Amino acid sequence: MQDFDFSPWANAQCQQVEQALAAWVGVDAPAALGDAMRYAVLDGGKRLRPLLVLAAAQAVGGNAAAALRAACAVELIHAYSLVHDDMPCMDNDVLRRGKPTVHVAFGQAQALLAGDALQAQAFELLTPDGAEVPAAMQAHLCRILARAAGARGMAGGQAIDLASVGQQLTEAQLRQMHRLKTGALLEASVLLGAACGQAWAPALSALHTYGQTLGLAFQVVDDVLDVVADAATLGKTPGKDAANAKPTYVALLGLDGARALAQDLLAQASAALAQSGLGQTQALLALAHQVVGRSH
Amino acid sequence: MQDFDFSPWANAQCQQVEQALAAWVGVDAPAALGDAMRYAVLDGGKRLRPLLVLAAAQAVGGNAAAALRAACAVELIHAYSLVHDDMPCMDNDVLRRGKPTVHVAFGQAQALLAGDALQAQAFELLTPDGAEVPAAMQAHLCRILARAAGARGMAGGQAIDLASVGQQLTEAQLRQMHRLKTGALLEASVLLGAACGQAWAPALSALHTYGQTLGLAFQVVDDVLDVVADAATLGKTPGKDAANAKPTYVALLGLDGARALAQDLLAQASAALAQSGLGQTQALLALAHQVVGRSH
Fold it and tell me: DSSP code of A183?
């Protein structure tokens, strides 16, 4: 951490991602659909997943063009999941990143379609014509992202979440739910970055552990923030978990217990990076500190 | 047509597709989500898109394992689009293939997630581990399917459809809407099959024309059936287009005019196959006849 200046690195990466997203998302879509897609994706979000992709790709000396595409693709999957998650039949949320949610701004039908189209565009971004990204790498990136997004990943986690409302879960059950719902895509971000280059098996395994641990830490912190933060800082409606009787780490472990778990996971993620044998892991380490130390 | 016995061929292909779908769809998904995914896909539908993939793959002597995966993948995209399209915020339909729609049977939240997970699984099916399907072919199949499903394909067509309710469209506008909404995926089915093998550019171009023409014919016949068929034959609620003030070919050209257009498109599709230079096009020709002659 000490010898790596995170902010300039992150700002430079984010600028690249924003430019790429602005150039790609919803372009050539029918007007209203393109507007809804761009509203869902542009000018918002911390771009944590894209930063993880780019940091992991840099750690393995990966193909930069492929990494930028993968960074944007995983953000489209994340953005689509938020659009659908906010809809009245799911969480019925009206505020996201400090602005009205997509279905409030564009109507439910358009929000549904925009989410669907964003998922498809993620796979379009990973499969460009030409030789910029080798075909085998394209296939590998699609494989990682599809698995992380689907029924054995993010969508599966959301289904478990739906079924768990009002239930008392054990820590193991809660961990499994979040491993899929939030963790799968964060972990996939790290794997996507790694797939843009060549890494030895021990390094890949360490990155895998880092990604899993970070994904879990993210959710633990999310549960803490849902209790302690206000709407202005959080950019979304706080206190929703308790109101919806959703199981959380705070409910299970208490506020101090949840905070201690987050610190423990940060230590595990750092240890995995230290054992990876990779040289350029400062950005990944800094991102883990960001995740655990964030206020929104 | 005369020297090709369509039914045995189609039955054998369908059996293979049904077995593969039953083995793959929603497996290892959380219980309720997997049930909704399988309900949406299994034991229903004419499997037109899978049959087009398999027929096109056979016409070019393509990789059979890749073709079966592509056949199932395109069916998952089709099935997810129906699940989302039937939801209350879209067409609000309660009957599909003669049974309650997914959101009626499983609730809206589960229907939304099942559709999302089906789209992701389509890309999972196209990107298996191992050497069964070469990586370059996997990437090519993902590229075709993602483009056809997204904002410049099916989802885009649905957005235009949404915006067109109550509007008077020209034939060119109506054709453009359907080219995306229904045509893109039918055309992609043919291209996916072709991508499972090696075909010369003139043959590919002929298959492309065949797919485009067939896609349009399908929609024209759909509009005719919405007027003349009853619910029991159709397996869904008829008369919805008029009730929803949707523009249709029947509204634009009259019943006889729409029927004549369908016959004209059939002749164009047949001519494209005859000019393709490919030997094994009987199944594709028979499928075009099926599309135009169907009663549901």
Answer: I
Position B49 scores a pLDDT of 98
Domain boundaries, chain A: 6-293
Closest listed residue to residue A189, CA positions, set A153, A221, A156: A153
Q: Distance between CA atoms of B69 and B122, rounded to whole angstroms?
A: 9
Minimal Cα–Cα distance from B285 to chain A, Å?
A: 30
A33: which chain B residues are within 8 Å (Cβ-Cβ)? 151, 155-156, 159
List pLDDT tens digits, range B37-82: 999 999 778 999 999 999 999 999 999 999 999 999 999 999 999 9
Stretch (H or E) spanning B253: helix B249-274
CB of A133 within 8 A of CB of A69? yes
Place of tokens 């761009």: A38
Nearest beta carbon to residue B29 from set A29, A149, A152: A152
Determine the residue of chain A that is closest to B148 in CA distance. Answer: A120
* Residue carrying structure tokens 């489209």: A76
Q: How confident is the model at residue A1 (pLDDT cuts 50, 70, 90)?
A: very low
| CA distance, residue B44 to nearest chain A CA (Å) | 21
Annotate B148-159 with b (16+ C-beta within 10 A) or e (fewer).
Answer: bbbbbbbbbbbb
**Two tokens at A230?**
């206000």
Q: Which CATH architecture has domain A6-293?
A: Orthogonal Bundle (1.10)
What's the pTM value of the predicted model, to 2 decimals? 0.94
Instruction: Give residue-wise pLDDT tens across range A8-27.
Output: 999 999 999 999 999 999 99
Render pLDDT for B158-180 as a digit per residue (tens, 0 to 9): 999 888 887 777 878 888 888 89
Q: Which of B76, B152, B167 best probes binding to A when mutated, by most A CB atoms within 10 angstroms? A: B152
Are A122 and B145 in contact, with CB atoms under 8 Å apart? Answer: no
Q: Do A120 and B158 touch (CB under 8 A)?
A: no
Q: Do A116 and B84 touch (CB under 8 A)?
A: yes
Residues of B in contact with A80 (CB under 8 A): 116
Q: How far is B91 from chain A (nearest CA, A)?
A: 9
3-state DSSP call for residue A128?
A: coil
